[in-house]
Amino acid sequence: MAQDALKRSAAKAALDYIEPRLTPTTIIGVGTGSTANCFIDALANIKHKFDAAVASSENSAARLKAHGIPVSDLNAVANLAVYIDGADEVNPDKQLIKGGGGALTREKIVAASADQFVCIVDASKLVETLGRFPLPVEVIPMARGLVARGLVGLGGAPELRSGFITDNGNLILDVYELNMDDPKNLESRINNLVGVVCNGLFAENAADVVIVADDDDVRILD
Ligand code: 5RP
């Protein structure tokens, strides 16, 4: 099956995680990227099951609105039932690398706000050890050089993502060659570099559930 069809299968399976709650409103978190776009398109069919969505990027907010799905500001939301998003890599502990689309900071914020993080991927994203995909790090522009030197000190080879500005007005360094044997430790050490806004390791707060689509079926890792 083509990769796009696998993304659509994983996205469709995630609809099972959207359930109306007993709370007055059910708000869901929605991620960013091509797999998340498949999910947004699928969501349009079950609009009656939730009240609004919080988006992790301006692009996703625009796509949600184009489907007539109300988009809420995270600060106006008391409870976020579930966050659904793709990933660039997933290891057996459901730890992730995210940020290929540059939305990692808002993705981490919305994921951290939700009761449950459901990650949707095609099987090509599964790895034994994270790190083949370069780690995106969002950086305050004036700290670009300082942070790059810090990342070299951690064993990485950072490259500025050319011509890219995040929704928060910052830069992305894509970092190659990092040792990810201890993802939680690395996540925290990178976050401690002054000038780093956020990095794309989702290790301390991994996914709760991973939905994986391959040619044969859709599997749930939970
Ligand atoms: C965006 C992300 C995406 O979830 C990640 O890049 C995967 O994207 P895709 O579903 O297009 O493969 O983290 O910042």
Shape: globular
- Low-confidence segments: none
**What structural class do helix, strand and pairing data support?**
alpha/beta
Bound molecules: ribulose-5-phosphate
- How much of the sequence lies in strands comes to 15-25%
Number of contiguous helices? 6
* Helix content, binned percent: 25-40%
Keywords:
single chain, 222 residues, alpha/beta, six-stranded mixed β-sheet, four-stranded antiparallel β-sheet, 6 helices, 13 strands, 27% helix, 24% strand, globular, binds ribulose-5-phosphate
Could you characterize what this model shows?
- The structure is a single chain.
- The strands form three sheets. Strands 2-1-3-6-12-13 form a six-stranded mixed beta sheet, sandwiched between helices. Strands 8-9-7-10 form a four-stranded antiparallel beta sheet. It has a three-stranded antiparallel beta sheet with strand order 4-5-11, with helices on one face.
- The protein starts with a helix and ends with a strand.
- Helix 1 packs across helix 2.
- The chain is globular.
- Helix content is 27%, strand content 24%.
- By secondary structure, the chain is of the alpha/beta class.
- The structure holds ribulose-5-phosphate.
- The site of ribulose-5-phosphate has 18 residues, from helix 2 and helix 4.
- The site of ribulose-5-phosphate (5RP) has 18 residues, from helix 2 and helix 4.
